[in-house]
Amino acid sequence: MGQCILCLVLIRKAFLYRVYPTTKQVERLGAWEGALRFLWNLALEQRRMGLARPRDERVFVTAFDQINQLTELRAALPWLADVPRNVCAELLVSLDKAWSRCFKRLAKAPRFKRRGRDELGFTEPHPKSWRLDGSTLRFPKLGNLRAVIHRPLEGKPKTCTLRREGNQWLASILCEIEVADPVQRTGPVIALDRGVVNAVATSDGDIVRAPRHLEVSAKRLARAQRTVSRRKKGSKNREKAKARVSVLHRKVRRQREHFLHGLTTKMAKSHGIVVVEKLQVKAMTASAAGTLEEPGRNVRQKAGLNRAILGVGWGRMVEMLGYKLGWSGGTLVEVPAAYSSQTCSSCGGVDAESRASQSVFCCTSCGYRDHADLNAAKVLKSRGNPSALLASGSVRTASKKRLRVARRSPESSGL
Predict the structure, then answer these.
(1) Which residue numbers are catalytic?
(2) What range does the domain containing 124 cover?
(3) What angle do the packed helices 23-51 and 85-103 form, to 10 degrees?
């Protein structure tokens, strides 16, 4: 009988659960955070000193070198030895990755961690060192933590990370799931035009209004931030006031994530190809304040626009679409955004005067009239020909790790 070879891939999914450490465990986690902050700053200073030497005498310290020195350092500092060794080693690996991104010009050089500004997580990279049993999470040197498992794990658990969000603790468990390589889908095709008044306008004629989560909480945030400014620096009351601000920001962030997950999941499940405009969101949301010598213009208006763009989550939306489409065999296509709001989707004419207002598009050439955002989405769809863009690198899919050995299908082999 014929045999069918299954091509399998490994995808990685993170499962986030709420955990409830005891008072003693919270105190110990706080001490661990201070110890890891010290370790990060010490390792960063060692790397900086090596790079500050003359060019022919520079020393490029690696994570392997620093992990080997960790044993001697932990023997000299008992409060650092209280932190699990694997957690310390994973922190040094994260620092090494940050420097690698800096050398590749993908990010700025890592900075020193400061108390109250930079929060650190505790990652246990070895699956045999931690265990999730029912509603109990066992973490090395910490003991059992009560966890709310609202959905079961999938695949093979790999790493477990404990992190704090304000006054809450979360456990992020990364799993590797072995699935069949999804069949590439070629349709249906939809284009999305992102905005600040309307979060998304689709080429199918649908408009999704921006939820404005930040504006709803703006008054409470302003009041809480004024309370922080009135408190004495370094006092306990100031720390409590800052915690209230953090809780409000956390609520807004989670509301935005919930909205984006619902929107992107719907698009990824119902469409095989999603076309979006390629935008440099980081550059678009840069401050317009300028310098003392050359002050910016319309600073308040630009700040409001930046806040609206970040409130909708343009960049996060594309990130979610990329990996969700990759899981289901879909394709994310990024096309140039130039003049998409001034181009007529009917005749192709380009004229700035065709954009009569924020919501009205009336072509000066052929008289075609439509909602401005819907017209822009149709223009993007006409630009998003996947076959023409595959070679140009404009197509994004979720990253996958292919298995080294293909598996035989038991049904087709007669077993």
Answers:
(1) 193, 277, 373
(2) 16-148
(3) 40
